Automatic annotation (TrEMBL):
The keyword Transmembrane helix does not apply. This is Diacylglycerol kinase family enzyme. PROSITE patterns: DAGK. Residues 7-140 form the DAGKc domain. The keyword Heme does not apply. GO terms for molecular function: kinase activity. Keywords: ATP-binding, Kinase, Nucleotide-binding, Transferase. Gene3D superfamilies: 2.60.200.40, Probable inorganic polyphosphate/atp-NAD kinase, domain 1 (3.40.50.10330).
Length: 321
């Protein structure tokens, strides 16, 4: 898909969540308005002020942007960015990101700086490029989707963040605690490219972020760059083995572990082997919800038109070197 020509005067419609993110939330609006004024660009700020308001606000931003060939911008962490992307995908609108979260995997893999002023310069000066999106049962994900242990880890991590604050260290401690509490294996039937296999695994992880794959040492980063998704399952293992796998991931060596199976794909179907299972918890970019089985993971037919710098992100060049 060819991205639309750059427009140096296209107005920005900025969706931001006052209830999430990091740093001084009150600085966002003035910084965006000042940068746009200096560039001679119009902007509208659309704050999300209550739980559950994000989808409605994102749809309103898309509606306004389509009327004037504007750009929809998501300011927040990966969850907020995902929520806005749900509305933008398939609309034809260009999409911008101002990362304000803890990990910012989506922004980092596409070379968008974490610093607000630098991210605004990218937004105001660069062109839109197509980036592919993952979907599970029609719901988009930009970073990853998962079920089983990893989804539970994310769900419990949010509780720790609400209690102790948002930081990578808190997220790590929450993950260790989840692993130590034990887990149950999933009994799945996985269908891929006309063949199927039975999988008993603590978790099924589907990645759509090359940087995340590179950092933990899985080889499917290149396949993600080429428009695929990456599937990861684990053999049934005990708590100590899971902690050892976590340590391997921290040192970028998970791909060397015999307990890990990883593969690239365009479309994947997952069914429950146990009779009676109809719904399962699935995490998409950190948000956990119940979905009906079977699950269909696939690359979305249309990409996002993301405003980003050209080439490989500096952080990813360092990982690959």
């Amino acid at each position: 898909m060819t991205s639309p020509p750059a427009s140096r005067d296209a107005p920005l419609f900025v969706v931001f969540n006052r209830a999430s993110g990091r740093g001084n939330r009150d600085e966002l609006g003035p910084a965006v308005e000042a940068a746009c004024a200096a560039a001679g660009r119009r902007c509208e700020l659309l704050p999300v002020t209550r739980p559950g308001q994000l989808p409605e606000t994102a749809r309103e931003a898309v509606r306004r942007a389509r009327e004037v060939d504007g750009i929809v911008v998501a300011a927040g962490g990966d969850g907020t960015i995902n929520g806005v992307a749900q509305a933008v995908l398939g609309s034809g609108c260009r999409f911008g990101v101002l990362p304000r979260g803890t990990f910012n995997y989506f922004a980092r893999t596409h070379g968008i700086p974490a610093e607000l002023d630098a991210a605004l310069q990218v937004l105001l000066t660069q062109e839109a490029m197509p980036v592919h999106v993952g979907r599970v049962n029609g719901r988009a994900f930009l970073v990853n989707a998962s079920l089983g242990l990893y989804a539970r880890l994310l769900e419990e991590r949010e509780g720790w963040k609400r209690q102790f604050g948002r930081s990578r260290f808190i997220a790590f401690l929450a993950g260790v605690r989840t692993l130590l509490r034990g887990h149950r294996s999933l009994h799945l039937e996985v269908e891929l490219q006309g063949r199927s296999w039975q999988a008993r695994t603590p978790t099924l992880f589907v990645g759509n972020n090359a940087l995340q794959m590179e950092q933990v040492g899985l080889p499917e980063a290149q396949a993600i760059d080429e428009g695929c998704l990456a599937g990861v399952t684990l053999k049934p293992v005990g708590r100590l083995s899971l902690l050892a796998l976590l340590a391997r991931g921290l040192f970028g060596r998970m791909g060397d572990a015999d307990e890990v199976r990883s593969f690239a794909f365009q479309a994947l179907t997952v069914k429950a082997r146990r009779f009676g299972a109809k719904r399962i918890k699935v995490a998409t970019d950190g948000e956990v919800l119940k979905m009906a089985l079977p699950l269909r993971f696939e690359v979305a037919a249309q990409p996002l038109l993301l405003i980003r710098p050209p080439g490989l992100a500096p952080e990813r060049r360092e990982v690959r070197s």
